[in-house]
Every structure is written in C-alpha cells, then in structure tokens.
Design brief:
The complex is a heterodimer.
Chain A: E1 11-16, H1 20-29, E2 38-43, H2 52-60, E3 64-69, H3 80-97, E4 105-109, H4 115-132, H5 136-151
Parallel strand pairs in A: 1-2, 1-3, 3-4
Chain B: E1 4-9, H1 21-29, E2 34-40, H2 46-59, E3 63-68, H3 71-84, E4 92-96, H4 98-102, H5 109-128, E5 135-138, E6 142-146, H6 150-161, E7 165-170, E8 184-185, E9 190-191, H7 192-205, E10 209-213, E11 215-223, E12 226-233, H8 248-252, E13 258-259, E14 268-269, E15 272-273, E16 285-286, H9 292-296, H10 301-305, E17 318-324, E18 326-329, E19 333-335, E20 352-354, H11 355-362, E21 383-390, H12 406-420, E22 425-430, H13 440-449, E23 454-457, E24 460-466, E25 469-476, E26 482-488, E27 490-495, E28 497-499, H14 503-510, E29 537-539, H15 549-567, E30 571-574, E31 579-581, H16 597-601, E32 607-613, E33 619-626, H17 636-640, E34 646-648, H18 653-661
Helix pairs in contact in B: 1-5, 2-3, 5-18, 6-7, 6-15, 11-12, 12-13
The chains are: A alpha/beta, B alpha/beta.
Chain lengths: 152, 666
C-alpha cells in the first residue's frame, strides 16, 4: 500500500445527465470536498454508454472508471439505466473471463439529491484504485494489439 | 480546421478562488485548434457575453467552450449568445469548472490541472461537434378526448373554448360517467345531475366538439402533433338522424328484466334503451347481448313499432380514422367487485349493497325515486351500517392504497339517510377519517354532531343474517377493542375504487405506462401530474387514481391547458439531440443491417422501419428509421447498435470518444 501512496490515479466518470450529473452539481453547491482525480463525462443516460468506450479509456491510460446513473425506476427515460445495468452484468463476466480487472470499474446509482453520496463514491473509488496501482497491464496489452494490427 | 474559442469565467471568486483561471486560459491557448482563449470575471454578464460574441466575429470561431458553472445553469445562456453572433448554438459546450471543480477541491496545483483537463475535454468534443438545427414538427390542432365522464367533459369544453377542435369518444351510449349516477355531492350536497347535465348538453351543442358515443379506441399511431387514431363506432342499431326519441321502442321491448347499469343493478332496463332520462345523446341503442332478435333471430318488435323506421339491425360497426395532435385520456375508474367480501355477505344478502348502489337509492332519478328502501322487501331500513375501507387499505385484498373518496361519501350517505329517515339510526365503521379538502372535515363533523351519525372506530369481522336482520359484528378500538354487535336492516360497503376494465389494453394501445393497479402513470407524480411519458398524451381524472370531483375537474382543466399550450405553437420545436440512422453512404445507402435491436431497446417506440428500394421499386433492405417526434434522445439504441449505424446528435460516438480520449493524450 505504501508504495502507491504517491500514485495519483486517472479516473473517468461516465454519468447520466439527469441524476448523477445533477447529484455531482449538488456536491458542488453543498461545498463537499473530494479528490481531484475524477473527471466527469456527461451522457444523456447510462443507457447511452457503449461499454467498449470503457475499454478504450483503459487502453488510453485510465486507472479506474465510475459509471453512475439514476436509481432503478428513476430513469428520466424510463428504462435506460436497466439496459445499462444488464449490459454491464453481461460484460462484467466476459471481461473477468478475459482477464480484465473489473474491480476498476465502479458501477453505482447516484440521484440528483445525493451530493454526499457522490463525494463518498469518488473518494472511495480513488482510495481503491490507489491501492490497486496504475493499470499498466491493460495499456501494454492494448498497445501490443495495436502494433499487431498495424503490422497486418 | 477548427477555430475554437475558450472562455474561462472567474464567477467572481467562486472559480478563481481555487482555480488559477489565467493559467487555464493560457494553457488552453496552446491546445491545437484553439484560436482564442481568455478569462473574465463574469462571463454570464452582459459584457461577458459581448466578449464571446465579439470573439466569434473577430476570430471567425467555429466552436466555443465556456469554462464556468454547471451547464444545467447557463448552457442555454451561452448557446443563445453564440447563436446571436451567428454561430450554431450546438457548437457551444460548457465545461463545469464550478460545481465539479472549484467548489469541491481545495486551492492548488491539482485543482487547476483538473480545470485544464475539463476544458480540454470539451475542446476536443467541440472539434467533432456538428451544427444542428432544431426539429420542427407540424401540429394537427385537433384533440382526442377518450372518456365522457366529468373529466372528459371538462377537458373537451376547455379545449373547445380555446378555439380548437375536439373529438370526444365514450364507450357507453351516453356521456356523463359515474358523476351522472351520484345523488348529491359532498361537501355542499348539491344535486349531481343538476350541475352535470348542463355541461353534458353544452358538449353536445358545442360547435368545436364532435361527440361519438358508443365508440371505442381501436388503435393509435404517430406521435405528438400528429397522431392517427382509429375509432370503432359500435353499431347502435338505431339511426340517430331518423330517431325522434319518442320512447315507443323501449316501452314495447319484451326484454324488460335486464339489470340496469346506470342503477348499479338495482333497477331494470329493456334491450333497446336510453341509459337514463337525461342521457346525451338522448337516443336509444340496442344491447345486442340481450336483444331477442340478435340472439334468437326473431322479435323485431321495436322495428315494427318505430314510427320513423329508425331501427337498422344490419348495420355493422364502423371504423373511422381521425388525425389529432394531442390525446387526453379520461377513462375513469370502477368500483371493486364485492365478491371480494364473502365475510360481509355481499351477493348472498340482498340488503348488503355498495356505495354506488346507495347513491342510486338516494337519487331522485333512482329506482326508488330517492326514498331509501332496502332492495329485498322495499321496507325503509330503521338501522343502517356503513362499512368504510371495504377493500381499500387492505393489502390482503390486493389494494393497499386509500380510495380517497369513501370517507367523504360515507359521511354523505349517512347524512342523506338521516335527512330522509328521521327516526333511523346509522353507524359508520371506519379505520381513520380522511377528510382532507376544502370544507371536508366540517362536513364530517356535521354528520356526527348535527345529524347524529354514530361513528365506530374499528373493523367489521362478519355480517350474517338472523331473524330477518343483518348482524354486524365488529370491534370498537376506542373502547379497548370491545365487541360491537349491531342488528341492522341494511349494510352499505364503501368498496374500493379500482382501475377501469380494459385500462391495461388501452395503455398498451397508446404506449403509456401504468402502475401495478392498472391506474395510468403520470410523467412525474408532482411536477407533471397530467402528462404521460408519451409526449402529446395527457391524463385527467380517476384513471390516474381514485379522485373526487374537484380534483378530477382540476386535472381535466390542467390537461386541457397542456393541449392548448401545444396547439398555441405554430410548429412544434424540439431540441435536435435525438438519434439518427446513418443514411449517408453505400452499401445501399445505410450501414444498418436491419437487426432492429434498437427497436427493442427504445422506450418510446420511436424506431420505425424504412424500405430502401432500387430504381425498379424493389425492396433492397429494410433499415431502422428514427421518428424525430417520438425520440427523446436517451441514446440507448446507440449503445445497442451492432453496426454503429445509429448515433445520437450532440452525444455522438465520435464526440464522446474525442472527449474521453483527450484525457490521455498527454
């Protein structure tokens, strides 16, 4: 653990516009402090998130990823969060099978009223990823694959 | 080549307090494609906006990123400013430097670095953004109202009085709904029909309202502004143009023992009938299920007696299609079937009746002409017991909710009984008295204090017959659970209000959602109480949940206003942040393979099928097409698409990829 105490992980958050983005806004208006490592990308809905983009982010250099949307039954678009959850459940097993560290993806629900939950989510994710260390394994594999692709 | 302008706002000290805004602007000026970068104290102020507008013109900017507060706050402001300077508003993006950065982090290097990343992300996105134009959809300024109860009547009149055409359909032979069956209404005790029937006549005579009674919705296609509704006009077997409503047919009809729906089964009617004397339209229909001619092939007594030859046995149902721009659903409720209560003996004992049946007994137009007489022998009951919450608030009966109106109508029933039978004794068994509403509590107090109704707090365990009396056994929980036994002449059950028959099928026809009890669901329980999740379809009245008359009329007028707002626009203008199917290149002008996963995923039924034909008109393939009127822009279809043929404008694959990957380029 000690060896990673200086490590600042690079974390991307894929959030929906209606619940978690607004929830993170509330964290701001409530002036709750959290780690600077997480950058938020706004999607209309978690149902919009193509999980291949998660892999691209890992390949690019992300050490951890947060996916967060509306609580079940609270989706602005009725069912987008259910599709996202089902997609993640299926992909989760597949990624685990091929050896990707799925602990680095944190899937959560944060509503527009849960500013404190967002701060906690960010802080606990940063702490976890800091413990796991940089995700260079996947970056290396991805670079290797890219090189093989370009040789073909 | 992109020419992006970056504008970093200090927000007074809200951002600059922890973020080095000057440094952010300087660093951003080094990013490829950034043609202009600056910071300013208040970007949203008039001089701030002018700064942006001037920069767009001077530097011929192709995109703008404002680093400021949340886009939920000022995205509209800055997009409008860009549009005023001639830049497409969708080429402007907001980096959230306040809520997501300066307010949540301490002052320092890391915070400034994060701010730089956040702005860079959106610079990369804006480079990929495409100019979008808002979607304009024409509107058919005609509304369809489904259900002719008080909600449908009110909504129709309000919309029609705004100068728009209305089609009102009602499945029964007359409009009026449950309200026409009521005797007096709480808390004023004014006669229900006296206040309702003038409205019914107004509907029939309104030049903007087309009334179809004995009609049901067959199907709905299209979307907000442009629905196509197919309506089944059930054959009435009587030509309303020839019929003079003389009533000879009904008086001669040999089928005289059919339980009258209007009298809740307490009276009878004939097979050719007008449901009640004040019916609108006041023309008879033939009930085919009970008509001798339709069932056995002979009779035709009505036809022989009709002086104008209005009877037309052979006329089939007719299907008509109407183009409408909005739909108001006002299909009302039903009263729970009392077969739920074997312990109360409903169906077994004739003198155990429902609240709606009591309404008919108390009504001057009812089977007893307003005298309270028991159904079994026509005697005036000396002692009467009302049981509130018969089904409601009882998860064991499958109805955990409160039916809302029963407390009030039970108080009214007891009061009416005391007014009509002065020497009578009345008892009300209740769980709680819920009398929330203007003058409601006072009304219940009046029943108890002035009219001497005996309120017993407790449940009834059983009702049984003994020596010609109905023995009501219950407990009084205010007397420490003391057993109470009342020898009653009549028992009235305040049965639960439930959703109407066929509510589920109707909801499915219109693609609107409903709750576990088959009541239609509003888009938001508080802030969108009359909207549904399907744009252009509105709700009012007891089809949403049991409601009293004031609430029903209130929601009906609310829904009417929503329709009027929609119709007041020349065209429907919508944000273009919707999904589109790529039709730009071969093979066969779309990469879509027609798997229609998007159709499965779409919560709005916005995916349509489009045929791509060759010049000979032969279908080459069937591809997906997005109906821009229905699409709400969630993008679930995009994540589902196997061939990346469907994309969402404003959040496209390319844009999101650029935004995410910008984080890792350094």
């Amino acid at each position: 653990m000690d060896e990673n105490s200086e490590f600042e992980p690079n974390i991307v958050a894929f959030v929906c516009n209606w619940c978690t983005y607004a929830g993170a806004d509330l964290t701001g208006t409530s002036r709750l402090k959290y780690a600077t490592n997480v950058k938020i990308v706004r999607f209309p809905c978690t149902g919009r998130i193509d999980f291949m983009l998660l892999l691209k982010a890992f390949a690019g250099g992300a050490d951890g990823i947060i996916v967060s949307g509306c609580h079940p039954n609270d989706c602005h678009y009725t069912s987008g969060n259910f599709h996202a959850r089902r997609r993640w459940m299926a992909l989760h097993n597949l990624l685990e099978l091929v050896g990707i560290d799925v602990r680095r993806v944190r899937y959560s629900w944060v509503s527009a009223a849960e500013g404190a939950k967002w701060a906690d989510l960010v802080n606990s994710t940063v702490a976890d990823i800091r413990r796991f260390g940089p995700y260079t394994e996947y970056q290396n594999v991805a670079k290797q694959l890219e090189m093989e692709d370009s040789h073909e | 080549m992109s020419k992006i302008g970056v504008f970093i706002c200090h927000c007074g000290e809200n951002i600059s307090g922890t973020v080095d805004c000057e440094k952010v602007a300087t660093e951003l000026s080094k990013v490829e494609g950034v043609a202009y970068s600056t910071d300013y104290k208040y970007m949203c102020s008039d001089p701030g906006q002018t700064l942006i507008k001037e920069a767009i013109k001077t530097h011929h900017l192709t995109g703008v990123v404002v680093g400021s507060c949340s886009p939920r706050m000022h995205e509209v402001t800055f997009r409008k400013a860009c549009a005023e300077a001639g830049l497409n508003p969708y080429m402007c993006e907001i980096a959230n430097l306040r809520e997501h950065c300066s307010w949540v982090h301490e002052k320092g290097e890391a915070t400034t670095e994060k701010a730089i990343s956040l702005v860079t992300m959106l610079v990369e996105k804006v480079k990929k953004n495409k100019p979008l134009t808002s979607i304009q959809v024409p509107i058919t300024k005609k509304a369809l109202v489904i259900g002719g109860g008080i909600a449908g009547i009110q909504a129709s009149l309000d919309i029609a009085n705004c100068g728009h055409q209305v089609i009102l359909i009602e499945k029964d032979p007359s409009i009026g709904g449950h309200m026409s069956q009521l005797s007096e209404t709480f808390p004023t005790l004014d006669c229900s029909q006296c206040i309702l029937t003038p409205r019914m006549v107004e509907v029939a005579q309104h030049p903007n309202i087309t009334l179809y009674t004995y009609a049901e919705l067959e199907k709905v296609e299209g979307s907000i502004g442009n629905f196509q509704a197919t309506i089944r006009l059930k054959a009435k077997s009587v030509d309303p143009k020839l019929c003079t409503a003389c009533g000879l047919c009904s008086s001669k009809c040999p089928q005289k023992k059919i339980p009258s729906e209007f009298n809740a089964g307490l009276g009878t009617r004939t097979a050719i009938y007008v449901p009640f004397p004040q019916a609108v339209p006041n023309k008879p229909v033939i009930d085919k299920e009970h008509c001798n001619y339709y069932q056995k092939g002979k009779c035709q007594v009505c036809q022989k007696n009709c002086p104008t030859g209005a009877i037309e046995f052979d006329k089939p149902d007719e299907l008509i299609t109407e183009a409408v721009g909005a739909i108001v659903v006002t299909t009302g409720f039903n009263v729970l079937g009392t077969d739920f209560f074997p312990e109360y003996g409903y169906g077994k004992y004739k003198d155990v009746i429902t609240g709606l049946q009591f309404e008919r007994l108390a009504s001057a137009s009812g089977p007893t002409l307003g005298e309270i007489r028991r159904p079994s022998d026509g005697q005036i009951p000396k002692k009467i017991v009302f049981i509130a919450c018969a089904g409601s608030r009882d998860p064991a009966k499958g109805i955990p909710y409160c039916s809302k109106i029963c407390c009030m109508y039970t108080a009214k029933h007891a009061m009416l009984y005391q007014h009509k039978v002065h020497e009578g004794e009345s008892y009300v068994f209740y769980m709680d008295i819920r009398a929330g509403g203007k003058n409601y509590e006072e009304f219940v107090r009046r029943a108890i204090e002035e009219d001497g109704v005996n309120y017993v707090r407790g449940r009834v365990a059983r009702v049984y017959e003994k020596n010609g009396k109905l023995i009501v056994k219950g407990v009084d929980t205010l007397l420490a659970g003391a057993q109470v036994e009342i020898e009653a002449d009549m028992v009235v059950l305040a049965t639960a209000g439930v959703s109407n028959q066929g509510a589920e099928q109707l909801a499915q026809k219109m693609h609107i959602s409903y709750d576990p009890y088959k009541f239609f669901a509003e888009a938001h329980p508080k802030l969108k109480p009359v909207e549904t999740n399907t744009a252009g379809i509105f709700l009012a009245g007891a089809c949403q949940a049991p409601k009293d008359i004031p609430d029903t009329v209130g929601t009906a007028s609310g829904a009417a206003v929503k329709v009027a707002c929609l119709f007041s626009q020349a065209q429907l203008i919508r944000e273009p942040l919707i999904a589109v199917v790529n039709r730009s290149g071969p093979p066969s002008f779309s990469t879509c393979v027609g798997c229609f996963m998007c159709e499965t995923a779409c919560p709005y039924h916005a995916i349509e099928r489009e045929e791509i034909k060759n010049r000979n008109g032969e279908v080459l393939k069937v591809v997906a097409k997005v109906n821009p009127g229905l699409c709400q822009g969630c993008g679930t279809c995009v994540a589902f698409c196997r061939s990346k043929s469907i994309d969402i404008q404003g959040y496209s694959n390319e844009e999101m990829y650029a935004e995410v990957m910008s984080l890792f380029n350094n």
